[in-house]
Amino acid sequence: MADWTDNMERASSVRPETPQAESVTAFTRRVKTLLESTIGGSWVRGEISNLRRQASGHVYFSLKDGGAQLSCVLFRGDAMRQKVELRDGQQVIVGGQISVYEARGQYQLIVRTVVEDGVGRLQREFEALKKRLADEGLFERERKRSLPRLPEVVGFVTSPTGAAVQDFARIMLRRGWRGRLVVLPAKVQGEGAAIEIANMVRTANELGGFDVLVVGRGGGSLEDLWAFNEEKVVRAIADSTVPVISAVGHEIDFTLSDFVADVRAETPSGAAELLSSSHGEMKERVTTAGAALREALGDGVVLARDRLAGVRSRLRLLTPRGQIEQGWLRRDDLANRLGAALQRALVLKQTAWREKRQALASHSPQRRVEFESHRLLALWKRLQAASPESVLKRGFVIMRDDQGRPVLRKASLQPNARYEAEFADGKVELRTQS
Questions:
Q1: Which intervals hold domain OB-fold nucleic acid binding (predicted)?
Q2: Last residue of a domain, which of 220, 249, 280?
Q3: What are the pLDDT digits (tens) for 105-142?
Q4: Of 280, 311, 334, which residue constitutes the final position of a domain?
Q5: What is the pTM of this model?
Q6: Which pLDDT belongs to residue 282?
Q7: Residue 50 CB partners (closer than 8 Å, separation 6+)
Q8: d(CA 71, CA 99)
Q9: What is the CATH number of the domain that holds 34?
Q10: Are residues 114 and 138 in the same domain?
Q11: Phi, psi at residue 226, to the nearest 5°?
């Protein structure tokens, strides 16, 4: 210790420009070299928190336990090889090398491998408290109350500046709800959030006048939603005389508030849709009933008019003038029917005459003569194509002996004999040699 003090005193007497002074970059680089060469590869157990996934594919998170925390980075190539799906609150064992990020002078663990190490501390606390409260019967279905069909005053225990309350109010208005929404402000994350939520639930019960209470917030990590897992919040909801809807996080998020509440909504928006659904159904029923009433009145008027027209028609038929008019109508009807019958008979006769004419034409000798003429012409053309003259015209020659018989084989030729070759344009006498 004395040696170190003496060295510091001697260094303080040296001016800043002396070569003994070391730049921040050089010093940090020396620390980095010392750490990386001394510690090397290590395995570390802890709980994941502050998990961030970058667009580049790199993953940054902190690994912590009850006494300390360690910054970690999992680069894209290593992240793609992992079989573990990282999440906040997860207990893991990671393997990697220590390094120093020189730009900030911060040491961090370059993670190469991630292995699950069971559920994290928060998850274990969640399961233990859930079991203890369930054993007390706080989650029993018999304790849960049904929601009022048309709630007029709704209290929402949440952060007044959060997006959840804005979405909630917008959906309620859009779906035609015309009640009163009271925002009961409370922290929904961090230290003191559970106390504020529990106190606000109790305050709402003391004030009275609420038909339904909604307790919730938007999504987040297990740590962000932890206030809704605190025992004081769960017991405040259980003691509420006003029906409570728990609307915490997203669809996949579950908190102990969800189990103790009378109704669980997947999201604050889902709670708004649930509460306003009865108003929408009632509005639709009124609209449907109004349309049905208008339709019934219209049908009644039409039916009365039809009945009145029928009575007038019957009265008109009973008068002498009506009888005469009916006679004219019957006469015209009979005339029309007679004309139609004559027309149909004429059409049938014309059709039969055309069919007979076609049948007679099909048996006419002229068509048979034409057919046979065409066939005879085709046969004559085939005969002409096979005649000797046609063969000679195609370049062939007919050989005959002195008796005029055709010579069909070379072997039939005799030495010193006379033969005749017939071409297309004439005949030539030939003599074979011995």
A1: 23-114
A2: 280
A3: 899 999 999 987 755 567 777 888 888 888 888 888 88
A4: 280
A5: 0.44
A6: 64
A7: 60, 61, 62, 88
A8: 10
A9: 2.40.50.140
A10: no
A11: -65, -30
Q: Let me know if residue 401 belongs to a domain.
A: yes
129 and 201 both lie in a single domain: yes
* Residue at 355 is within a domain: no
Q: How many domains does the chain have?
A: 3
Query: Please, which residues have CB within 8 angstroms of residue 237's CB and are 6 or more apart in sequence?
Result: 201, 215, 244, 246, 257, 260, 261
In a domain, 142, yes or no: yes
Residues 275 and 415 reside in one and the same domain? no
Q: How far apart are CA 247 and CA 17, in angstroms?
A: 64
Using alpha carbons only, give the angle 146, 149, 150 rounded to the nearest 5 degrees: 135
d(CA 69, CA 49): 9
C-alpha 100/C-alpha 123 separation (Å) is 32
User: Rounded to whole angstroms, how far apart are CA atoms 371 and 354?
Assistant: 24
Q: 306 in a domain, yes or no?
A: no
Q: Give me the pLDDT at residue 423, please.
A: 81
Name the token pair of 187. 């922290």
Instruction: Tell me if 189 sits within 8 A of 220, measured CB to CB.
Output: yes
Q: Which of 76-90, 208-222, 251-265, 288-302 has the lowest mean pLDDT?
A: 288-302
Mean pLDDT over each residue of the chain, to the nearest integer: 84
Phi then psi dihedrals of residue 426, to 5 deg: 155, -175
Regarding predicted confidence, which is higher, 371 or 339?
339
Q: Amino acid letter at 359?
A: A
Residue 428's Cβ-side half-sphere holds a number of Cα atoms within 13 Å equal to: 8
What pLDDT score does 425 carry? 84
* Same domain flag for 75 and 222: no
9 confidence band (pLDDT: 50, 70, 90): low
Q: What percent of the chain has pLDDT over 90?
A: 24
β-strand pairing of 41-53 with 91-101: antiparallel
Instruction: Tell me what the mean pLDDT of segment 166-190 comes to.
Output: 88
Q: Are residues 109 and 136 in the same domain?
A: no
Q: Are 228 and 257 in contact (CB under 8 A)?
A: yes
